Amino acid sequence: MPKVISIHSYRGGTGKSNFTANIAATIALQGKRVGVVDTDVPSPGIHNLFCLEPEQTTHTLNSYLWGEISIEEAAYDVSRNIGLSDDAGGRLYLVPSSVKADSIARILRDGYDVRLMNDGFRKLVKSLQLDYLFIDTHPGLSKETFLSIAISHVLILILRPDKQDYQGTAVTMDVAKQLKVRKLLLAINKVYGQLNPDALKQKVEETYGEKVAGVFPLSEEVVQLASEGVFCVRYPEHPISQTFRQVAAQIDQG
Amino acid sequence: MSEAGADREKLDQTPNQAADQAADQSSGGDLQSLASSITAMASPFRNYLNDLHEKYRSVDEGTVADYIPELAEANPGWFGICVVTTDGQLFDVGDCDQLFTIQSMSKALTYGMALEDHGREYVNSKVSNEPTGEAFNSIVLDEETNRPYNPMVNAGAIATTDLIKGKDGTARLKRMLSMFERYTGRSHDICMPVFLSEKSSGFRNRAIAYLMLNFGMVSDRIDETLDLYFQQCSILVNAKDIAMISATLANGGVNPATQVRALDEHYVQDVISVMLSCGMYDASGDWAYRVGIPAKSGVGGGILATVPGKLGIGTFSPPLDVKGNSVRGIKVCEDLSKDFGLHLFNVASPEHNLQDWLSGNTDIDHW
């Protein structure tokens, strides 16, 4: 049965897109068929990580939401960009959002029928025969985030160790409970050197009563790679890449 | 001390306190209502309806009604499915905002109002409850009693419309419109071109009315009553309205969204049982046997189907079969009845459990 996973954070800058790209690539490299949808319509960005240039993407999530194309037409096979050969079992598809100012303005001005997101996700899973669909979201709460939380089998909330994120995560978890989310995982990102990751993990788990799937350091190496390329494809043996594999395993549990 | 260090100092209390503060501020109502509308958008049941829509969208059987030009203008591709549950959850897919004329579906509601106005005994004396097996516009009355056969064929509907109280045509129309508003929760307009067309070309209905006048089954305000009849048929609705009307009947006469009573609880059974025996024109017997959901269709392309205690279905698709029922609408009702065991007399376990699919609580593989 296909799994839908939403990656969300209450505030921006938590590293959602990076996290999504890495976890999606990790699973695709394990031989699975994986889709990623960039629903961060106001500020898209994940296409950079998969080295998909805006000039190549004539079809986007925006065009689907406007009824111009079917969603499959906006799905780009980026498997090669993460080093997957054509005969490998795994595949990685990305549905990007448009980075054209005009397109963003149009969607902000006119809005769209949120239900189309739901219908599109299902269509995508079916027609590309996906094992996993990752939804990269816009930070904060909106109709789109509510919807992506409601339809997900797993919701991954990313937070940094600071007060604003702690508070926002609690709010998001209230919403998630109201939406009867089936499985929730927390991931702590940008944990600076002085903090003890194990103690932090324990503390957060106690506070929220939910599992922390991974603790990621504030990493210069990740920053260096910036928004070009997927870290765990470049450095598969790095501890960070191993943590991503642990998170991937937890998505499948239970 | 570095900023990071300062944060670390705070960490002992921060996650707890911050989380508690946020929890204190979470209230019930608004979040719950938004969450429930989002859950409905993403529920397995809506996805099921979506698949039905996809499945039958390409069906190109049937023809759009063309006895007046205004109806012939309908786009045969229009197709909407809406379901409203008795607890007010609404699921819609396709063209559910497209307006069309209610046509014969209005007959069920007018019948209910006539019952409220005069009581069962009197109404029964004017209109019988027998299926005709004849076409909807046939000119036949019961030979012994001179009553029209049932309130769902034109003759019977004109007789029930005649029973609607009010000092003049305007007062009667206003009463009728406010009744529709109680059923749907919003006010309705009348499509003037359709009304005028029906009025100017409705010779057959006029003939039926005069025949009934001849037998003393209707009062002599024939023109006023026929105007009202043509007006009620020309009320503009969409598939959501139809589903809401159905759900109101399913909910014992109370609109499940507004909680306004639209029909006296004593007469809910009258309306629904006549829909079951006579609602689908002369296909009603077979419909009751196969689908088993009380329903009323209209030549505008709508079908109103009521599953008592559970839900109301409203479908809209203009192409009609030879008996005057919407082709795609029939297929949708058939599938819903079969897959969720909605046939009134079904006792076997259906393929899908309705409650599970509505709530989405269980892990249904709708992906």
Brief characterization of the structure:
The complex is a heterodimer of chains A (254) and B (367). By secondary structure, chain A is of the alpha/beta class. Chain A is built from eleven helices and eight strands.
Question: Helices, strands, pairings?
Answer:
The complex is a heterodimer of chains A (254) and B (367).
Chain A: E1 3-8, H1 16-29, E2 33-38, H2 46-49, H3 61-65, E3 76-77, E4 91-95, H4 101-110, H5 115-127, E5 132-136, H6 143-151, E6 154-159, H7 163-178, E7 184-191, H8 197-208, E8 211-217, H9 220-225, H10 231-234, H11 239-252
Parallel strand pairs in A: 1-5, 1-6, 2-4, 2-5, 6-7, 7-8
Antiparallel strand pairs in A: 3-4
Chain B: H1 3-10, H2 14-25, H3 29-42, H4 44-57, H5 69-72, E1 80-85, E2 90-94, E3 100-101, H6 106-118, H7 120-126, H8 154-162, H9 169-184, H10 192-201, H11 203-214, H12 222-233, E4 236-237, H13 239-250, H14 268-278, H15 284-290, E5 295-297, E6 302-307, E7 311-316, H16 327-340, H17 354-359
Antiparallel strand pairs in B: 1-2, 1-7, 3-4, 5-6, 6-7
Helix pairs in contact in B: 4-16, 6-7, 6-14, 8-11, 8-12, 9-12, 10-12
The profile of the biggest β sheet of chain A is: 8 strands, mixed
* CATH T-level fold name of chain B: Beta-lactamase
Query: Biggest sheet of chain A: strands side by side, in what order?
Result: 3-4-2-5-1-6-7-8
Question: Which structural class do the helices and strands of chain B define?
Answer: alpha+beta
Strand order across the biggest sheet of chain B? 2-1-7-6-5
Query: What class would the helix/strand composition of chain A place it in?
Result: alpha/beta
CATH superfamily of chain A: P-loop containing nucleotide triphosphate hydrolases
User: Spans of chain B of 5+ residues with little confidence (pLDDT < 50)?
Assistant: 1-13
Largest sheet report of chain B? 5 strands, antiparallel
Kindly estimate the percentage of residues of chain A that lie in beta strands according to DSSP: 15-25%
Overall mean pLDDT of chain B stands at 90
> Which outline of chain A best applies?
globular
- Which CATH class of chain A? Alpha Beta
| Total strand segments of chain B | 7
Separation of the first and last Cα atoms of chain B: 52 Å
Number of domains of chain A: 1
- The total tally of domains of chain B equals 1
